[in-house]
Amino acid sequence: MSEIMPLRPGDPPRLGDYELRGRLGEGGQGVVYLGEAEDGERAAVKLLHVRFTGEAHARSRFARELAAARRVETFCTARVLAADLDGETPYIASELIDGPSLRRIVEREGPLAGEALEKLAIGTATALAAIHRSGIAHRDFKPDNVLLAPDGPRVVDFGIAKIIDESGTITTRAVGTPAYMAPEQIAGERVGRPADVFAWGSTMLFTATGKAPFGGDTIVATLNRVINHEPDLGALPEGLRAVVGACLRKDQARRPTADEVLRRLLGHLAEEGAEVSDEVLAEGVQAATADLTRDGVRAPARGLLRRRPVVLGGAAAAVAGLAAAFAVLRPDLPSGAATAPAPAPPAVSSPAPSPSTGSPLLDRIARKRKITIGYRGGLPGVALGSPPAGFEIDVARRIAAELGVPADRVVFKDVSVRREAAVESGEVDLVVANLSIDARTRRRVAFAGPYYLARRDVLVRGGSGISSPEDLRGRRLCVPQGSTTAALIRDRVVGVEPVEADDMAQCAAKVADGTADALPGDDLVIAGFGARLNGRFKVAGLGLTREPYGVAFRQGDPKACAAINEAVAAMYADGSMRKLLDRHFGAVDFRFATGRPRPERCR
After folding, report:
1. What span, in angstroms and rounded, lies between the C-alpha atoms of 305 and 149?
2. Of 73, 120, 276, 307, which is the most exposed, with the fewest CB atoms less than 10 Å away?
3. What Å distances lie between residue 275 and 23, 192, 248, 278, 375, CA to CA?
């Protein structure tokens, strides 16, 4: 909630059922007051400026704001409590959001990073997808209009929002906040949902850097940067970088929709043009939810999102659960400020503790008879669907069984772009998610395995004649957003023709229909995409690099490392690893590695 300022001479003492207690702010359209009803209910009461009350177009715009706010699900905005648009003092009374803006948090506490940033991205993308599904274009999405309330992030201020017409777009003057405007808003072109997606991308970049991506010394300089400059995305983690980069494309026709943004953040396959479903919104809730406890002790992490239970069951239940799931640890509140102390539990006799194994992970498994394993979803043949299925899911189940976890006590969680962060925070016990063991990842997590030795390669049609890097010269290489393998190939091979695509699913479709000759990526991943295509496809066998996929867990647990290594060794020894590879990727001509990779040393 904004700072409450005293009323000024000429301010009304009351509007409708609300006695006005002070000013919360003022904008070009009106003043926002803190109102209080007789029953103590507080509200943000927005009053149309007196100078506009006689203007039909101003009242009409005020009415559009009311209509927009009422159409949007209440989990992502402020609920309308009362309104009077016909009287001498037109006003809208809305739910009072008791929380700071995203801008205030970033400016006061600094940029967000890691898990906090990734979860905020998923939470706000879920809200924006729900807003668009309501038929609304916000047109002023920015850090100031994202409020981090105790019961969830809200997108507010629909003062220049527009209900989309049947064409899905609207025509308007350049309205909005310059640093977060899309190019089409500045150019006076047709403006609709894509402008919100651009603003979302700009907001995520501000959240990661503390600076507006197109900020300039003057408004003219800012507008020029929006139209002509490319922002620096280096502060974003790799997965989020590709999504934000796609959202900030100058051509609005080439941007993803909010639905597609959400799906990509969740690791889903692309479903171009499909409306976001109740299930995807609900998954957005779960993915943006963090468990900040390690064996019952709250982790001291600023800005992370607290976990609350979510009951799913259709659109109404999904969106109703969102607000509860997005409870934010408020940096401006002292620890425990909003909660009463819990009553002491009754004294009970406790069973004697089991002897320690010397491993925090193995002790926790023995005590709880349960394990939570993170995976990277959206990869056919590797990990796809709900519940997930694929090669890595089967590997994870076997490891869990070798560690003594019953099959019905294995919990899977899609951690996609936040694999290391999920381990560090204790959100998951292990990650089995094509995470390569290298110096960078070793700084954050420990590894056992590898369970598979992948290689950078390309997927091609059978009979294409491509079997070496040189064979790609003059060929069309599909380049998914953020693909490091594609960059590696283009550095090594002169004359490769790039074919851009949003993601690997689009690239696979282009290879299938002949508009591209090759899809780059780790051999296991591209084989999974090839296995679901109709036709004969193969992994070319370029073997550009070696990517040892390890099982990630928290550092400082060598005994858990040794136990996982034994589980992986058993899978290679009894032939089950080869059988799994053949089961999931046998439809593709794929010479996968069958020998056990050299195991990690357990320190």
Report:
1. 11
2. 307
3. 40, 16, 21, 10, 25
Q: How far apart are CA 313 and CA 113, in angstroms?
A: 32
Q: Is the pLDDT of residue 314 over 90?
A: no
- Indicate the CATH number of 452-546 among 3.40.190.10, 3.90.1280.20, 3.50.50.60, 1.10.10.10: 3.40.190.10
Q: Between 360-368 and 558-573, two packed helices, what is the crossing angle to 10 degrees?
A: 70
Fold category of 102-325 in CATH: Transferase(Phosphotransferase); domain 1 (1.10.510)
347-358 confidence digits (pLDDT tens): 333 344 456 778
- Residues with a catalytic annotation lie at 140
CATH code reported for the domain at 14-95:
3.30.200.20
The dihedral through the CA atoms of 536, 541, 542, 547 has a sign that is positive
Query: Distance (Å, rounded) from C-alpha 75 to C-alpha 106?
Result: 23
DSSP code of 473?
A: T
The CATH H-level superfamily of 360-449+549-581 is Periplasmic binding protein-like II (3.40.190.10)
Q: How far apart are CA 341 and CA 334, in angstroms?
A: 14
* Predicted TM-score (pTM) of this structure: 0.48
Per the listing, tokens 């500045």 go with 186
494 burial (CB, 10 Å; 0-12 / 13-18 / 19+) is exposed
